[in-house]
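Reopening this one. Same input as before:
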Amino acid sequence: MIDVAHFAASTEAYVLADYRIITPVMLQFCSWAGDLASAAGNLDPGMTNQQQVNESAEAWVCKKGNFNPSDVTCDADGWKVAQMIIQRIDKGSKHAVSEAIEVYYNSSQITRRIHHMINDMGILDSDNASYEMIKEKIQITMSAPVLWDRLGYLSDGKTPAPAIYRYALIHAFAKYCYENK
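Same output, byte for byte:
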């Protein structure tokens, strides 16, 4: 299912950033990185064992809660549709948005959603991307303190996500992308 508002926000951020109309602190903040940081809100404070935190993160990330399957779809589709809109605008189309949406949703591109997300991370050859490559790109993006300062709080709403929680979220998302590409 597509959350139109989420899809539109992600798509718009990528299009506007391409034309330097906006320059977010980090573009992915408006997409998967913001969702991943907010997934900390699904994790209970007080866990101190890395394996326990990893299992909890894997139970939530891209499955339910603050970073669920609809979010994954909207973020991946938003990035790819934005690229298609930009191409059409550059070619002078007056209907770039509707054309891009129609072409994308009537093509086999929707079967490659996770590939689009991996491409957005800066890995162009998503078919051959290893778990380690994906995890490294996610770690680089997620190293921005603004993500954690704004969104990265645990389920009590007061506790900032400690390093073992951040690692678990990054691991869970990298694993999901690698296994579903």
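So the earlier flakiness isn't reproducible anymore. For the record, The first helix runs from residue 4 to 18.
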